[in-house]
């Protein structure tokens, strides 16, 4: 990363000696590297990490987006389809550390990272990854998305010693949120749906896409049941019966790069056309990469808010 120094080689040797002396503890190695560390409390505990770490691996695209907003670069990332804003990570020269759900432990160990950042998709690998290097779980809690995201961004600010930059960007996001909330009270009721393989799934308040309801104040047209990252399977009749004023659409097939009918084709039927959303041209096709793949990041959150604002 951008924090490499002329003492890197010496520090690596000192770190290796410290690891050997302390029974392989990655945190002990981090402390020995340059003497500057920070304690980060996260979803799975508290971890001592090096201040301004040199080599950082992350599995989360939201974290990667925030790092990009802070002019930071990750050294190791998962093998996936990167959106345009993060397209440089598609390059084969960038170390790939597994998939977004399955870490390649050998590749990670060989890369000798100073810090590993994970979130929900790789949360189950926390203990194993912690044996390789200091690991923090910066998952965003869908039940309190904005507060959780701000906490996550603040921890990145601590780790990379860029807290003032984080504060500035969060303030800009707050301004956007307040602007949307001022208009959302008159926007009627909304429904978030995701299309995948021709099927429909709905998401409501407290879900992974709950930013629309929980933060931006768009009223929900129905009580949607959600379990973890999964929404509620619905029919086209559900759309007609509940009659949303605005329909927010995420095309999972497009985000994943898999074959399947486009969301516009899936929703092209008389039941959907009978809704207020269709009649009033309020079917908002959200950027599926931004919402499904990236999620909460300092650049991407602002983009998601702008998309909702444009649909009001």
Explain what this protein looks like in three dimensions:
- Strands 8, 9, 10, 11, 12 and 13 form a six-stranded mixed β-sheet that branches. Strands 3-6-7 form a three-stranded parallel β-sheet.
- It is α/β, with parallel strands linked by helices and 312 residues long.
- Helix 1 (8-21) runs antiparallel to helix 2 and helix 6 (145-160) packs antiparallel against helix 7.
- Helices cover 41% and strands 17% of the residues.
- It starts with 7 loop residues before the first helix and ends with a helix.
- It is globular.
- A hairpin with a 2-residue loop joins strand 1 and strand 2.
Provide tags for this entry.
15 helices; alpha/beta; disordered N terminus; globular; 13 strands; 312 residues; 41% helix; six-stranded mixed β-sheet; three-stranded parallel β-sheet
């Amino acid at each position: 990363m951008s924090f490499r120094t002329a003492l890197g080689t010496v520090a690596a040797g000192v770190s290796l000696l410290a690891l050997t002396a302390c029974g392989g503890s990655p945190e002990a190695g981090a402390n020995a590297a340059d003497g500057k560390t920070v304690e980060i409390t996260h979803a799975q505990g508290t971890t001592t990490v090096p201040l301004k770490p040199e080599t950082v691996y992350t599995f989360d695209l939201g974290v990667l987006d925030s790092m990009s907003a802070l002019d930071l670069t990750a050294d190791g990332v998962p093998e996936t389809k990167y959106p345009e804003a993060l397209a440089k990570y598609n390059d084969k020269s960038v170390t790939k550390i597994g998939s977004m759900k399955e870490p390649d432990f050998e590749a990670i160990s060989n890369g000798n990272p100073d810090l590993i950042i994970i979130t929900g998709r790789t949360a189950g690998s926390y203990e194993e990854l912690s044996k390789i290097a200091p690991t923090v779980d910066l998952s965003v809690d869908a039940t309190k998305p904005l507060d959780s995201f701000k906490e996550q961004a603040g921890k990145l600010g601590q780790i990379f010693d860029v807290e003032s930059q984080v504060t500035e960007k969060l303030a800009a996001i707050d301004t956007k949120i307040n602007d949307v909330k001022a208009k959302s009270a008159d926007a009627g009721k909304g429904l978030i749906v995701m299309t995948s393989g021709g099927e429909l799934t709905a998401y409501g308040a407290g879900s992974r896409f709950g930013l629309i309801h929980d933060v931006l104040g768009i009223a929900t047209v129905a009580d949607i049941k959600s379990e973890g990252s999964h929404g509620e399977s619905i029919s086209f009749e559900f759309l007609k019966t509940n009659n949303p004023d605005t329909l927010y659409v995420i095309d999972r097939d497009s985000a994943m790069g898999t074959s399947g009918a486009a969301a516009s084709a899936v929703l092209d039927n008389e039941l959907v056309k009978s809704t207020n959303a269709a009649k009033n041209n309020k079917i908002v096709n959200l950027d599926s990469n931004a919402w499904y793949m990236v999620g909460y990041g300092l650049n991407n959150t602002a983009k998601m808010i702008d998309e909702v604002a444009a649909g009001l």
